[in-house]
Amino acid sequence: MNSYPDVKHPKTYKSRLGGYGDFYFRVSQDEYSKLVDLEAKYESETDDYEKSEVGNLCFEAGVKTILFAALCVEASINDYAAWQLGDSYFEKHLANLDVASKWVVIPKLVCGKEINKSGAGYAELKALIRSRNELAHNKSKHLDINNPQLPSKLEARTTKFYGSAHAAYKTLLLISLEFDQLVGPHFNPLRTLDKEISPMLEIPSNIIGVYADCKNIITRNNNAS
Asked: Does some domain include residue 77?
């Protein structure tokens, strides 16, 4: 059985309407699971038409993974703040903070705990927000088909995008695992990954390795601190 900190919170009972953090988490996770399978299919596909179709599905799953992960981290910290500090206080003083700042400031206000700003979770959180903004504020660019560097630039752009999609799901796991240890699973702004606390939790088998990797990262961070 896991040992968690006994961190005092202003409110222990939660009765709220709305707050879709868990739903956004599940969608991001489901899309990421699809992406992993589709990437494997893309690499093995030999028919050019089919490869193109799978590529389109990969892009769709990658976009959804990123956007729903970003929705999850923002909705979850907003819900945590409004629950613990009150809707009025949140709207007046915290709602307009950027998302990364909310994850620093709000737990500190609520219970005196602060995300590790030198840790992997916080770094990935900031990267997720940048990835989300690049998608949300996407602009077209002139395409110089005569540029000999065009193929390498397109390849780098594709590599960056799919790296961001993989990192997006990893962000959810890292932050959830860190906050289980920081404030305890019952107060974790994100859904806890502890099946003893959340028995309905299911991580698809094709991405369970990502969960194991993230657990190792958090353990190393804790041992180093």
From this structure: yes
